[in-house]
Design goal:
nine-stranded mixed beta sheet, 406 residues, 2 domains, Ubiquitin-like (UB roll), globular
């Protein structure tokens, strides 16, 4: 599949505009804290949510609003998660009503999201002010402002947009995301909003999104904590005028691959920007008996605190990798396992047939001192494979989360 990168982020697809600004949820006036994404027409919509049994009020409201597979706008604030509050649903619904009134649309056509501190009541006054001002700021150039407004402890803007061909038509995709800490999705605080001008039914849109989330967003781990507010949503305007995708087939496969392009871009972006992180870790598992085994092992290794600490110190402690594999819950034959690690500084192998083997400590230190490291695990049990993304665990992570509320 050929994709051509284009500017615009979530505004790149036909019909979409966006905006972001500071409204006052956050005390830092230099930090944008509310974002709006809007489409000129009704869209097919789908979303995947956190599996945490304690979930934010915006999840409840969004799930209800797009149960009909339709939406026209996304409203999202940062600085307050609107979670574990008695009036949370009321506040989330109010955000939808305010947005709908400002845009002249139905409140049920609004996807609402919040991210930030859990358990603090959300003040609607600054939210209402922001929503009244955002429509004036909507533009085709507003994608980056929206991406900035949803960030919390993120240090990098996360956005992508590209064009590809589906059904003989040029189709565009755009996405923004935020996520730095509390990242261990089962669907971390992780949010991603995707737009496209493809014509696709809500059912097929949902099917494609779930498949892609399972292979990308759900294969990252910064700290092992699954957030209460995780959400990946997608809106499809249909303005590309491709033959509507209403069943599986070549066009559906192309659409899913396009969403996969987004996920494969965002997953390492989020993992590499983990709170306090200095290194992006990529774990490839190959030769598994089935995909479930490969995914379980890859996530098990990438989520291990000891493995993360090992990479922070650039210490090639192969036993920690084997240990994490062993308690991951996956079934494999240890006597067939091989492990190597690589970076732009080179490659080193430290495990063959399940046993640690001699290697150069000096060379390994050089390889593990880079900011992007790949762990390759071979199982020799089959042909299934999977990739997971993570980061190292640093002193800075503890510092950030030790006084997160202040």
């Amino acid at each position: 599949m050929t994709v051509t990168r284009i500017p615009g982020g979530v505004c790149a697809p036909k019909g979409f505009t966006a905006a972001g600004m500071h409204c006052g949820v956050r005390k830092n006036r230099s930090k944008k804290d509310i974002a709006l994404i809007c489409c000129e027409t009704e869209c097919s919509a789908a979303a995947v949510y956190t599996q945490n049994k304690v979930y934010g009020a915006p999840i409840t409201v969004t799930r209800s609003n797009i149960s009909d597979g339709k939406a026209r706008a996304v409203i999202c604030n940062s600085g307050n998660a609107n979670t574990s509050n008695a009036d949370g649903v009321e506040k989330a619904e109010a955000m939808c009503s305010l947005t709908a009134k400002a845009l002249g649309i139905d409140p049920k056509d609004v996807i609402v999201a919040s991210t930030g501190v859990i358990g603090q009541s959300l003040d609607l006054e600054p939210i209402a002010y922001g929503i009244s001002e955002l429509p004036k700021l909507l533009s085709k150039d507003g994608g980056e402002d929206a991406a900035l407004a949803i960030m919390t402890t993120d240090t990098k803007v996360k956005q992508i947009s590209f064009e590809t061909e589906i059904g003989g038509k040029a189709v565009r995709f755009g996405a923004i995301a935020k996520g730095s800490g509390m990242i261990h999705p089962n669907m971390a605080t992780m949010l991603s909003f995707i737009t496209t001008d493809a014509a696709i039914s809500p059912d097929m849109l949902s099917k494609a999104l779930k498949a892609v989330v399972d292979d990308t967003y759900n294969m990252i781990s910064v700290d092992g904590d699954t957030s209460t507010n995780d959400m990946v949503s997608v809106m499809a305007s249909g303005l590309a005028q491709n033959p509507p995708i209403e069943a599986e087939g070549e066009d559906f496969e192309k659409f899913t691959l396009a969403l996969l392009e987004i996920g494969n871009y965002m997953a390492p972006m989020i993992a590499g920007d983990g709170e306090g992180a200095t290194k992006l870790l990529i774990c490839n598992v190959a030769g598994a008996s089935d995909v479930k085994t490969a995914k379980t092992l890859a996530r098990g290794v990438i989520a291990s605190s000891l493995v993360k600490s090992m990479f922070f110190g650039a210490d090639a402690n192969w036993g920690r990798l084997l240990c994490a594999m062993g308690y991951s819950g996956a079934e494999f034959d240890i006597s067939k396992v091989g492990i190597s690690m690589s970076s732009r500084a080179g490659s080193v192998k430290g495990v063959e047939n399940g046993f640690c083997v001699p290697f150069s400590e000096e060379e390994a230190k050089k390889i593990l001192s880079e900011d992007k490291i790949t762990i390759d695990i071979s199982l020799g049990d089959g042909e299934a494979a999977a990739t997971a993304w993570g980061c190292d665990l640093t002193y800075e992570y503890v510092k950030i989360n030790g006084d997160y509320r202040t």
